[in-house]
Amino acid sequence: MVISLQRDLRASIGAVIFDVDGVLIASPHERAWRDALRALMATEWRSSAPGNTYAPERFTTAVYQAHVAGKPRLDGATALLDYFGVPDARQRAVTLGERKQALIETFIAHGEFEGFPDAVRLVLALRAVGVCMAVASSSKNANAFMERVHLTDQETLRDVFDANVCGRKLAHGKPHPDIFLVAARELDVTPSRCVVVEDAASGIQAARAAGMQAVGVARLDDAALLEAAGADLVLTTLDMLDVKALAEGRLERQSETAPLPSVRAGATRGRRA
User: Fold this and answer.
1) Which residues of 192-230 are buried (b: 16+ CB within 10 A; e: fewer)?
2) Among the residues of the chain, which ranges form H helices?
3) The domain made up of 2-26+114-247 is a member of CATH 3.40.50.1000
4) What is the pLDDT of residues 61-83, one digit of tens each?
5) Which fold has domain 29-109?
6) 123-153 burial, b if ≥16 CB within 10 A, otherwise e?
C-alpha cells in the first residue's frame, strides 16, 4: 500500500523547476571558463604549476559538462583544476573563479548570449496551462541573463516564474539537493511532486537526492551522462516534452515531436544593458 501511494504521488506532478545555464539560456559560461584558464596558464601560472596535464585543446565540452557545469563557482573551479592536475587547486580556484566572473560580466553587458527558443516555448506553454514553475540555479549570473531575454517589451524571462532561488547562498551546492528543496518549499509543493529540468549530471543527481523526478536536456550529445546520473527522461530538445500530459500530472515524451507555439521573432536574444 505504501509503495502504491508513493508511485501515485510521483505520478502527480505539481510543479516544474528549471535550471538556467544550458537549459533556459545558451550562456557563455563554458567559453568564460576556457578563456580564463587559458589566460592564466599562459601567463601567471605558466611556471608555477608544473606537472599538470593542461593543454587548451584538452578543455573540451565533455570536460566542462562532467566537472564544472551546474556546480557553484568555487566548486567548479576546484574540480577543473583538480582534473588537470594543477597544484594548490583550492587556492587557485579563487583566482580562476574571479577571472571567469569578469569575463561573464563582459559577455552579459555586450548581450553575447541567447535564450534557447525551445525552452522559452516550453515555459510559455506551461504557464498557459497553469503549471506552477520555479527557476533554480547556483549561478549568481542567472538573473542577469534572464532579465535580458525579453518576451515582450514589458516582460522578461525572469518575470514568468512563481519562485526564483537563483544565486542563493546555501550550505551545499549541486549535487546536493538544497537548492531544489528550497524551490519546492517556496512553491509550496511537495518535493515528490516536482520535476526538475537540468542539463548537467550534478543537477540531475541533486534532483534525485531531493526526491524529485528529473528531465535531462542533452544539448551536447551527452545523453548517456544524464542517463547515468539518474534522469527519468532524456530529451535532445524541450519541444519533445508532452505539455498536455505534464499539465495532467504525468511526465511523458511526445509521440510526435513538433515545435511548441513559437514566441515573437527575436525575443530570445540577450539585449544590451
Assistant:
1) bbbbbbbbbbbbbbbbbbbbbbbbbbbbbebbebbbebe
2) 2-11, 29-42, 61-67, 73-83, 89-109, 117-128, 142-147, 178-187, 201-209, 223-229, 243-247
3) yes
4) 999 988 998 888 999 999 999 99
5) DNA polymerase; domain 1 (1.10.150)
6) bbbbeeeebbbbbbbbbebbbbbbbbbbbee
Where are the chain's structural domains?
A: 2-26+114-247, 29-109
Pairing of β 132-135 and β 114-115: unpaired
First to last CA, the chain: 56
Amino acid (1-letter code) at residue 3? I
The CA-based angle 167-270-72, given to 5 degrees, is 20
Q: How far apart are CA 175 and CA 166, in angstroms?
A: 15
Q: What is the pLDDT of residues 1-49, one digit of tens each?
A: 333 333 343 448 999 999 999 999 998 989 999 999 999 999 999 987 7
